[in-house]
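User: Hey, my collaborator sent me this sequence without any context and asked if I could get a structure. I don't really work with proteins. Can you help?
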Amino acid sequence: MKLVYFLVALLALASSLAFAYDPSPLQDFCVAINDTKNGVFVNGKFCKDPKLAKAEDFFYPGLGPGNTSNPLGSKVTPVTVNELLGLNTLGISLARIDFAPKGLNPPHTHPRGTEILVVIEGTLYVGFVSSNQDNNRLFTKLLNKGDVFVFPIGLIHFQQNVGYGNAVAIAGLSSQNPGVITIANAVFGSKPPISPEVLTKAFQVDKNVIDYLQKQFWYNNS
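Assistant: No problem. I've predicted the 3D structure and written it out in structure-token form, which is a compact way to encode the shape of the chain:
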């Protein structure tokens, strides 16, 4: 019976570890610093002495419009722990996404965070694709000003401005550093390149197609 209790406890512990992302803080705040001599390393960042924290550590100035004059017609302005040091250990971040008319935030994933999006201005066509286990179903919606949509953690998703004017959205993310993997950039723009033999077989296309795609300039809008 003790063995059963031990196994149950072990499984519970493993389950809790497997589904934990950003750990909960055990103090009021842990402002990140780049001082490796005097700081304490917590969740990917060194922390300053809490007694030295100041209001500026929790402040990000002017989340203004991003420059959408690029091939994608969109610009993501992130506010993660890298931009706002007071976010360290708090498990949240956000981003502003600006879209020119017909602009696209291309298919991408956030490996460490769920995203919830609210449209501030304009009309967006948004969607995500479920995993192989769910037969890669596509979920899409047309969002107008004030509408909210959620993209589950790790799933490929996108947003496109389908209006004739500019669009703006704010995204909240469930990690201080959710990360981003833009699919086209990662697959066809990796350094060094993925073997064409691998990609030719994976996408079931001619090698000339892969060669063409790998020669393109894959713009990063974030």
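In plain terms: The mean pLDDT is 88. You can pass these tokens on to your collaborator as they are.
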